[in-house]
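2.7 Reproducibility. Because tokenized structures are sensitive to small changes in the input, we list the exact sequence used for Cation-efflux family protein, including any N-terminal residues retained from the expression construct. No trimming or masking was applied before prediction.
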Amino acid sequence: MAENPVKIIHRATWIGSIVNVSLAVLKITVGKITGSQALVADGVHSFSDLITDTAILIGSRYWTAPADEGHPYGHGRFETFTNIFIGILLLVVGIGIGWDSLSALGHEANATPGMLAFWAAIASIVVKELLYRWTVIQAKKINSRSLHANAWHHRTDALSSLPVAVAVVANYVFPDLHYLDQVAALIVTAMILKAAFEILWPAILELTEAQGDDGIEAKIQGYASEVPQIKEVHAIRSRRTGSTILLDFHMLVHPDMRVEDAHTVSEKFKSHILSQIDELVDVIIHIEPYTCAERVINPCCEDKSCD
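Resulting structure tokens (single pass, no recycling of outputs):
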């Protein structure tokens, strides 16, 4: 029996939260002791993960709920709004860190950070990369976009520690380059802002009713070509709601086919595509006769019949 998706989300998020707290305290403490502004910024980034963890813990209780009378298409948009919250939070954190780093560039340089900052950054890279890989596995089990977004938040945290480690070593090798730590903090900022965009943009497209899957039309056409009774499919439309996709299209059958037979063909075809496309949760098929008035892909020629 498959494990409850909510349990998977909560387990992955709680484990991530414990790791985030531990690393955030470590990096901020070591950053203050060694004078590494970049490591402190990286620690603040780790603390921001806690807010996204909380959002996922709360939001998952809603977006995993089944469709009801008030939400006949399900509650997937709660996951969309959770992703938007995560993206906006990352954006704000990134802008704040970037502003502090730019301000520091115009002042007297800090002392060279101690090598303890290097080892703290290395520990963060290793732990957060492992956490990213494990969280992605959990996200794929239940096809959760929010959990996947949070996994990328972990990887961003790992990547953001890399310039910190490089800056500490470079400051020892080239002590005259006083502002390498601030430059590293700016690189961290760029990584955070990139992650924010990659989380926000798909959520924005979803809210604006963009096509749910760019490749779904070709898939449906391919599946339809394997069914002799289906003469044509067109007007294929999809939209995403959280981690799921809703689909509708027109299916053309021979004009002489009985309504009952056409319905049977459409139900079998619906079951087939639902089994083939994991994210797909509902399909609406509009049955039409294969006549000149309805044909789109293969329109009738003036001197030919519709057969």
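The longest strand covers residues 232-241.
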